[in-house]
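Review session, final week

We close the course with one last complete record, chosen because it touches almost every idea we covered. It is Riboflavin synthase, a protein from Lentzea aerocolonigenes with 206 residues. Go through it on your own first, then we will talk.
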Amino acid sequence: MFTGIVEELGHVVAVQDLPDAARIRVSGPIVTSDAKHGDSIAVNGVCLTVVEVEDNTFTADVMRETLTRSSLAKIAEGDKVNLERAAAVGQRLGGHIVQGHVDGTGTILAREKAEHWEMVHIGLPPQLARYVVEKGSITVDGVSLTVVTVSEDQFTVSLIPTTLDLTTLGHRLPGDAVNLEVDVLAKYVERLAVPHLRAIAGEEAQ
């Protein structure tokens, strides 16, 4: 589990294409300071398992499912990436509950700059729209953010200077893909409620 509070901005050192997979090596002195084989590190919001740690870098395998659902399919050597270690029990939950299981990708549509913050418009895939609500939480490239406005095909988030300076969201341009993870609580509520709502609807139709 993660909190969506990015610890550092790392960069991709190498990408190796494998059959139905890829192996990436990422530089990040903070997240590798106590990392070991088998640990979890979120890369742009994708939970990956550490295979090897060496000289402030770690290696992780990216399976086909992850490549299909996330922007890691297009990751390249030199790319900047948001990094976060798995949350430790007892620490402050600064963001929200993040699994590192990307639900899909969105696209940066526009950016509106203000003096001390920036509003970013992000395209919302139709299958995820029902999970996104105004003032709710969403994870964008591993960053825990609050939804400002939402419609059927896009939502906006407001980025403070710290987020702009210390994460990839300060560098994303219109047209760039970003990883999205909706609030897992919304998905569980839907899973539990839908059968009951359908049963009620069936009774009313009789």
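Two points worth writing down before the exam:
The chain has a mean pLDDT of 93.
The two ends are 45 Å apart (CA to CA).
Good luck, everyone.
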